[in-house]
Amino acid sequence: MYSLILLNGGIGSRTGADQPKQLLKLRGIPILVYALISADRVEKISQIVVNYPPNWREKIEEVLEAYAISTPVTLVEAGDSRHSSVAAMIPHCTNDDVIIHESARPLVRSSDFQQLIDSQFRNVSLMSEISFTVAPVDPETSAVTGSLDRSRLRNVQLPQKFSRSDLQEAHDSAVEKQIEYTEDATLVADHGFPVHFIEGSDENFKVTTKTDLKMAGFLLRPEEDDDE
């Protein structure tokens, strides 16, 4: 069985809203709910650990009640960074394997979670090919310092799954080294544990800006809208 760590502690200032972006509505439903419902449908996810921005616990509880999420949910107050939030949530996981996702990716499907669970590897991340050219640069001098082989790079996505002990050990080591990461696949790999990837979908993007909100709303429209 798996515990899902659902990151939900951001404020979302770039959306220009007066509330956390995960509470904004897409097609009449709070963004947070989409990931919850997708996870709730996966039999092997037996626990969901959700964090919340300081002072917003009551509102998150209202959402959980309103949408009748049947999987047991544990609430944890968010840390001051994504990295510290994951670290604070790991001890609340009751299973030996965990999945990490973020509510700001509302287009996740139950099949995405199941694809990770079905993988033969214990530490796995969804990733997608990079469709554009990237280059290493020196920000201070604005100089391009070389080139990168795009075929050997991937866009890191969520969800990801890990052995809880590997994830915990990697986070403990990062604290000792005073290093913070923006996601956990590279964190776990950098600390000596094998991590693999499987192909994700370009629709599984993170909602960050007002434009992202519009795009997500478009992609979440009912299929019958296409026939109009």
- End-to-end separation: 43 Å
Counting DSSP E segments of at least 2 residues, the number of strands comes to 11
Main sheet: strand order: 5-4-1-6-10-7-11
SSE order, one letter for each helix or strand:
EEEHEHEHEHEEEEHHEH
Helical proportion, percent range: 25-40%
The assembly state of the depicted protein chains is: single chain
State mean pLDDT (0 to 100 scale): 91
User: Helical segment tally?
Assistant: 7
Radius of gyration: 18 Å
Major β-sheet profile: 7 strands, mixed
Low-confidence stretches: none
Q: How much strand content do the residues show?
A: 15-25%
Structural class: alpha/beta
Principal-axes geometry comes out as globular
Give structural attributes.
two-stranded antiparallel sheet, 30% helix, 228 residues, alpha/beta
Blueprint (SSEs and pairs):
Layout: E1 2-7, E2 25-26, E3 29-30, H1 31-40, E4 45-52, H2 57-66, E5 73-77, H3 82-89, E6 97-102, H4 110-118, E7 124-129, E8 137-138, E9 143-144, E10 154-163, H5 164-177, H6 184-190, E11 196-199, H7 210-219
Parallel strand pairs: 1-4, 1-6, 4-5, 7-11
Antiparallel strand pairs: 2-3, 6-10, 7-10, 8-9
What would you note in describing this structure?
By secondary structure, the chain is of the alpha/beta class. The chain has helices spanning 31-40, 57-66, 82-89, 110-118, 164-177, 184-190, 210-219; strands spanning 2-7, 25-26, 29-30, 45-52, 73-77, 97-102, 124-129, 137-138, 143-144, 154-163, 196-199. The strands form three sheets. Strands 5-4-1-6-10-7-11 form a seven-stranded mixed beta sheet, sandwiched between helices. Strand 2 and strand 3 (29-30) form a beta hairpin. The protein is globular. The mean pLDDT is 91.
